[in-house]
Amino acid sequence: MMELLAQTGLNAVYAASYISLVAVGLVLIFGVMGVINFAHGELFMAGAYAVVALYADMHLPFFVAVPIGMVFVGVLGLVMERGLFRPLKGNPLGGLVASIGFLMILQSLAVMGFGVRMEHIPPVTQEVWRISDKVGLPVARIYVIVAAVVLLSALWYFLKRTRFGWALRASAQDPEAAALQGISITQTARIAMFIGAALAGVAGALTAPLVSVNPHMGHSVIVTAFIVIIVGGVGSLEGAIIASVVYAFVHTFVTTFSDGVLADIVGLMLMLVVLIVKPTGLFGSADRA
Amino acid sequence: MLLEMRKIAVNYGKINAIRDISIAVPEGKIVTIIGGNGAGKTTTLRAMSGMIPISAGEILFEGQRIDHLPAHKVVAHGIAHVPEGRRIFKDMTVEENLRTGAFLRRDKPEIERDLEQVYDRFPRLRERRVQRAQTMSGGEQQMLAIGRALMSKPRLLLMDEPSMGLAPVIVEEIARIIEEINAQGLSVVLVEQNAELALELAHHAYVLETGNTAMEGPAHELRGNEHVRAAYLGL
């Protein structure tokens, strides 16, 4: 029993890692640009397809494919900023609708380029890191965990210790006051969009060999990310990370000990309970929501 | 003249917020803009710093046109704006707020020196360096907003209602700070609801009424003016 608990715990850490990469990106974009990016799940999907194209089809090394995929999705984020969110500045609802349209375009492009069938991606490594006979974690999952820790730490450092990081946070809190400090809101929007999209992209790229890659895979990802940012408090990066961990543990344990459908229901219940008890989310404050 | 506004008009949709306003700010002086609610004081100031587009007229700073520039580019010319309601970054620490004020500067050693100067000027900010700005009192937040503006090393400081919502002793302290900053050579444009305070501090004053300049002159003269005394000083 202890072994099963330990194993499930490790699996939950893996799930928390890629969920938090996606959710943090979503929160960052919302914070700085004020729009909800519905296409965020499809950015995840685009990262996964970058690995399909570069690693599975073109046989580039996996660790070359992943960074290329990450930058590629970051650039998609820049395209969204320029093409959708900047022209719709000051119109959050318009931005949301445009991002839904963009989601459909990305899905259609994936179908046109790769077909609707599930992609087969050769495993990057079959190795398993063993703690005991029955408890272990595939190394491919450890890559995801390490990447999440490294990237989120780097993001934290960037936001807290660099002048562009301060500029980003200042723009998220008060765009007009930020402009009065000489900060170009367009520039911070671009940076936020690139980072947010790239984080979703790298999560998709790293998990591609571990999940079923198909044009509609973004759907469950965005639903999970929404639950997580609502539980964590919309606008709070720390909240998004902590809520990712909470959600991943709850979801993984319920899936393991009961089943996946029930786990989804429990996840949504978690969100409802948080909304009833603390409508601003665990780490949200009223003036940010 | 350090700054000159010539025949400025600003429209919000079909409404003229200000119609025909000309203001001149001489180097090293404090110029105040007073007037009632909706007279166009804040709008005038926001036009100066590029926060709202003007629909007529021109604005010159050190002889250069700045009226077509967005706010974040006006700062680079040396104009810092302490906005109405302070607008500090509440979730950031005091020091992060101040450093954000120096966003455009690259002269690192001088930024550190100026930061020390701001801390010397406002010892309470030094005490609260690592505290989130939200946790501070209104007076401290106003000091932070002024300190943040000073960090951009401006030639001209625009202040919108610095006394708003503050206790009388804090207002006096803010007034002393404005005089001190000005004595060190920084020019100031002060928009104030508190006309008594403004006319006491300023060298020159403009009285706005419904988007037009109703009167202008040396501050001490306006203090003696019948109309100003009746309408704005409550005497």
UniProtKB/TrEMBL annotation, chain A:
It comes from the Bacteria. GO terms for molecular function: transmembrane transporter activity. Keywords: Amino-acid transport, Cell membrane, Membrane, Transmembrane, Transmembrane helix, Transport. One of its GO terms (cellular component) is plasma membrane. It is found in: Cell membrane. The chain crosses the membrane at residues 12-39, 59-80, 92-115, 135-159, 191-211, 223-249, 261-277. It is a multi-pass membrane protein. Pfam families: BPD_transp_2. GO terms for biological process: amino acid transport. The keyword NADP does not apply. The keyword Transit peptide does not apply. PANTHER family: ABC TRANSPORTER PERMEASE PROTEIN (PTHR11795:SF447), BRANCHED-CHAIN AMINO ACID TRANSPORT SYSTEM PERMEASE PROTEIN LIVH (PTHR11795). Belongs to the binding-protein-dependent transport system permease family. LivHM subfamily. This is Amino acid/amide ABC transporter membrane protein 1, HAAT family.
Automatic annotation (TrEMBL), chain B:
The keyword Protease does not apply. Pfam families: ABC_tran (PF00005). PROSITE patterns: ABC_TRANSPORTER_1, ABC_TRANSPORTER_2. Keywords: Amino-acid transport, ATP-binding, Nucleotide-binding, Transport. The keyword Ribonucleoprotein does not apply. Residues 3-235 form the ABC transporter domain. GO terms for molecular function: ATP binding; ATP hydrolysis activity; branched-chain amino acid transmembrane transporter activity. It comes from the Bacteria. One of its GO terms (biological process) is L-amino acid transport. Belongs to the ABC transporter superfamily. This is Amino acid/amide ABC transporter ATP-binding protein 2, HAAT family. It comes from Roseovarius mucosus DSM 17069. The lineage of its organism: Bacteria, Pseudomonadati, Pseudomonadota, Alphaproteobacteria, Rhodobacterales.
